[in-house]
Amino acid sequence: MIVASGATPTNRPAGKAASPDRPLPAAVPVTWVPWLAGADSIGPWVMLSWLALPLAVPIVRIVRNRTDGPSLNGALARTGQLQLAFCVLLSAGLLAS
Q1: How many domains, in total, are found in the chain?
Q2: Contact criterion met (CB below 8 Å) for 39 and 19
Q3: Which of 36, 50, 60 lies closest to 93 in space, CA to CA?
Q4: What is the pLDDT of residue 97?
Q5: Buried b or exposed e, range 79-97, using 16+ CB within 10 angstroms
Q6: pLDDT of 20 strictly over 90
Q7: Is the same domain home to 56 and 27?
Q8: Which tens digit of pLDDT belongs to each residue from 34-68?
């Protein structure tokens, strides 16, 4: 779990610590238990959203291999389409379960 602190390396002389420097509270792993228990009641239909995963592969390739603006803008547009597909499939899975 990431705890955002807004601290930067320049804040160390002031006594602030970035999140990797601070240990997480002991109760953090316990917060996952109710989530896992609730995931069991949703059902396998929620995995329908995984069908959007192949749409992410070409986007990742573009972002890793290209540096020009038009290509990255196209990847950004396709990311929006990916999010829409994921949300529609997730909603369908939740409705079906």
Answers
A1: 2
A2: no
A3: 50
A4: 80
A5: eeebeebbeebbeebeeee
A6: no
A7: no
A8: 666 666 666 788 888 889 999 999 999 999 999 99
Same domain for 95 and 60, yes or no, is yes
Q: Which residue has the tokens 């420097």?
A: 21
The residue segments making up the domain with residue 1 are: 1-41
Structure tokens at 7: 């601290």
d(CA 47, CA 82): 16
User: Are 62 and 82 in a shared domain?
Assistant: yes
**Contact between residue 47 and residue 30 where contact means Cβ atoms under 8 Å apart:** no
* Cα 36-81-45 angle, rounded to 5 deg: 35
Q: Are 17 and 32 within one domain? A: yes
The phi and psi torsions of 6 (rounded to 5 degrees) equal 80, 5
CA distance 53 to 51: 5
Residues 48 and 29 in one domain: no
